[in-house]
Amino acid sequence: EDQVTQSPEALRLQEGESSSLNCSYTVSGLRGLFWYRQDPGKGPEFLFTLYSAGEEKEKERLKATLTKKESFLHITAPKPEDSATYLCAVQAEYNFNKFYFGSGTKLNVKP
Amino acid sequence: ETGVTQTPRHLVMGMTNKKSLKCEQHLGHNAMYWYKQSAKKPLELMFVYSLEERVENNSVPSRFSPECPNSSHLFLHLHTLQPEDSALYLCASSQEVPGDIYNSPLHFGNGTRLTVT
């Protein structure tokens, strides 16, 4: 069964304290893996797409990496404005209309 | 207007009411989606429309009825809902290019917060 698991469920960091969020997945043929950021009361905002193992994408303090079984979202020297819930989703080759989402990691960065 | 717009932002309805959620996308995409988001649970796919044709109905109860009159508009008609249907309902769109392995990501609206009393 295709599924996505994110860990940890919640993460508290001090401003400047770097860390990583994990997204492990099982899918029969990965078409793409997506990272989103969701702020309270808003819809998910697209961050990155990764297509193949070894690929990396960066945006400001965020860097996403992909292996054959998991993806990491590395946050370098986070700021309070990085506080949000980060969602991971995978898209299968055999059914590209379906995006399987994880439950998310709620990140809280304290000043 | 840009992106994906959903109305209303908040909705409170009784179990015997009938209401509709509206979604409009201004991105020129050809696929639209309804997702349900409940606390601490993954987003649940409800319906997918591709080129205005329903291609996915993810075992959703018949009290939820989607409508896609054109590629820019999507509705979710609600009737005789249950309290457990209270959730954030998210609309999304994407661009599908047949034969293209690089599918576009989902672009979401800000959702309708539904409370069923």
Describe the fold and architecture:
The complex is a heterodimer of chains A (111) and B (117). Chain A has 111 residues and is mainly β. In chain A, 0% of the residues lie in helices and 59% in strands. Chain A is built from no helices and 11 strands. In chain A, strands 2, 4, 5, 9, 10 and 11 form a 6-stranded mixed sheet that branches. Chain A has a 5-stranded antiparallel sheet with strand order 1-3-8-7-6, with no helix packed on it. In chain A, a hairpin with a 3-residue loop joins strand 7 and strand 8. The model of chain A has no long low-confidence stretch (mean pLDDT 94). Chain B has 117 residues and is an all-beta fold. Chain B is elongated. The model of chain B has no long low-confidence stretch (mean pLDDT 90). The A-B interface holds A 4, 9, 31-32, 34, 36, 41-46, 49, 51, 87, 89, 91, 96-104 and B 4, 6, 31, 40-43, 45, 48, 50, 55-56, 90, 92, 96, 101-103, 105-111, 113.
Please give a handful of descriptors for the protein shown:
heterodimer; A: 111 residues; mainly beta; six-stranded mixed sheet; five-stranded antiparallel sheet; 11 strands; globular; B: 117 residues; four-stranded antiparallel sheet; 0% helix
Helix content percent band of chain B: under 10%
Beta strands of chain B, count:
11
Chain pair forming the biggest interface: A-B, 26 and 26 residues
In round numbers, the mean pLDDT of chain A is 94
| Biggest sheet record of chain B | 7 strands, mixed
> Using DSSP, what is the number of strands of chain A?
11
Structural class of chain A: mainly beta
What distance separates the N and C termini of chain B? Answer: 32 Å
Strand and helix layout:
The complex is a heterodimer of chains A (111) and B (117).
Chain A: E1 3-7, E2 10-14, E3 19-26, E4 30-38, E5 45-50, E6 56-59, E7 62-66, E8 70-75, E9 84-92, E10 99-101, E11 105-110
Chain B: E1 4-7, E2 10-13, E3 18-25, E4 31-37, E5 44-50, E6 53-57, E7 64-70, E8 73-79, E9 87-94, E10 107-108, E11 112-116
Parallel strand pairs in B: 2-11
Antiparallel strand pairs in B: 1-3, 3-8, 4-5, 4-9, 5-6, 7-8, 9-10, 9-11
